[in-house]
């Protein structure tokens, strides 16, 4: 056979589409897989191998039954969807393969929901192999590693890993990269009365305040000191001192000085401001006042797309 005839018999390779800028991972991954052939027998995509990243139709991904988060702000989701329309998906979701072209989400629920709102047909995904317990572990650990989780959310995730995944505290520490004492401190927070847990969840008090309160045996005394912390804006050091001294009344040395104190923003007003800003940005916002009228505002985000969404809101009209 001549070289020319051999060349004629060489099958042509599938052409790749060239993605443009501003399309995130989709532009990099698109065209890196082939269409199903007669070998598969239907129209669609060839299943991706485990431990690979590829584009998966959003309609082929079912929800994670072990998803730790149950509430997603619809306004924030819509804003993320608008960002995805412009920037594309930058961080892939994680899924496990259930069957031929059938997947179950492990992590990335917000990105998946926002992608559906944005009208995307496919989404970049990292395919992993996992059984039900591994699914729960990965979903909880991914949830714990989010920077904007409050202490109660972390504690509840730790508790689920201990009770539902049968992990000892030492094993749990290894899984989440924390030492045993840190895990123990978080789990102890769940012993606090519901009112105090809600106060910690809503940033009315800090983790330091809560750790001091958990050392009090009486629920009544815990609640009394909790309300005093809020009303008097007690520091963590002051609360620790009160607990060590058996919650004795303030001494003369502790009494307010005769000098007029600098006016402080009421706690209730700070919390209202935080709630207003959290609703505006669809993310947790902390307002921390400082001396001489100074302070800082912190806006949390859980992904690059989320940060871009917030920056888009901050841009002047």
UniProtKB/TrEMBL annotation:
Residues 247-266 are annotated as: Disordered. Keywords: Chromosome partition, DNA-binding. The keyword DNA-binding applies. Residues 54-144 form the ParB-like N-terminal domain. Gene3D superfamilies: 1.10.10.2830, 3.90.1530.30. InterPro entries: Chromosome_partition/occlusion, HTH_ParB/Spo0J, ParB/RepB/Spo0J, ParB/Sulfiredoxin_sf, ParB_dimer_C, ParB_N. Belongs to the ParB family. NCBIfam families: parB_part. This is ParB/RepB/Spo0J family partition protein.
